[in-house]
Amino acid sequence: MKIKVTRNFQITIPVEIRERLGIRVGDYVDITYDEKEKVIIIRPYRRKWTTYELGRKLTPEDIEELIEEMNNEITNNY
Predict the structure, then answer these.
(1) Rounded Cα–Cα distance for residues 23 and 44 (Å)
(2) Residue 9 located in a structural domain
(3) What is the pTM (predicted TM-score) of this model?
(4) Residue range(s) defining the domain that contains residue 41
(5) Taking burial as the number of CB atoms within 10 A of a residue's CB, which of 10, 26, 28, 72 is the most buried?
(6) Using one digit for the tens of pLDDT, what is the confidence trace for 14-72?
């Protein structure tokens, strides 16, 4: 399957592939380059969601810690 690279070096993932991988609008993908094979690999990026019990009181320190965790996760994954 051949797709065109736009002038901004963007590509569109074909619908067949998006559907097979379950990629939706707003999702992230992980892109790596395999030096040995000389290929670009695109994988869906599935973020681990943290949930909290409703009604739990968060302190300002809890909120700061959560922000720091998210910043670290974003930095380490991109």
Answers:
(1) 7
(2) no
(3) 0.53
(4) 15-77
(5) 28
(6) 999 999 999 999 888 989 999 999 999 998 887 766 666 677 788 889 888 888 888 88
